[in-house]
Amino acid sequence: MQRLAPISVLGTGMMSRTLARRLAAAGYPVMVEWRDPGTAQAVAHDLVGPVRAGRLSEAARAGDVVAIAFEHVSATGADAGELTGKVQLDLTSAWDTTRQPIPLAVGHTSSAP
């Protein structure tokens, strides 16, 4: 049987929990991270499959693949070296691009005819 890559899911929202649930149901070893260890333990306990909870640095090291579902990972104290060489899935949307108007076609400076 082929070994499935361990996956860490970093984040607190519905997307993180859904992703962790689906991965665990498919048999992937999953580590969930929440800033509140009690929440992480509860989520890991509720999911079916090979799921465990851990702190951010532990979760970052544990996964061959790391799904990041919150912005500004560097502000959390995660060491960039813990993510070096890992496949990183950024599940966030940048605020500055989602709130900007759609750019005009090349060569146009106005939407007026």
From TrEMBL:
Chaperone listed as a keyword: no
Keywords, ordered alphabetically: Plasmid
Alphabetized SUPFAM superfamilies for the sequence: NAD(P)-binding Rossmann-fold domains
Stretches assigned to the Pyrroline-5-carboxylate reductase catalytic N-terminal domain: 7-90
A Pfam family that the UniProt record links to this protein: F420_oxidored
InterPro entries linked: NAD(P)-bd_dom_sf, P5C_Rdtase_cat_N
Protein name as catalogued: Pyrroline-5-carboxylate reductase catalytic N-terminal domain-containing protein
Organism: Deinococcus ficus
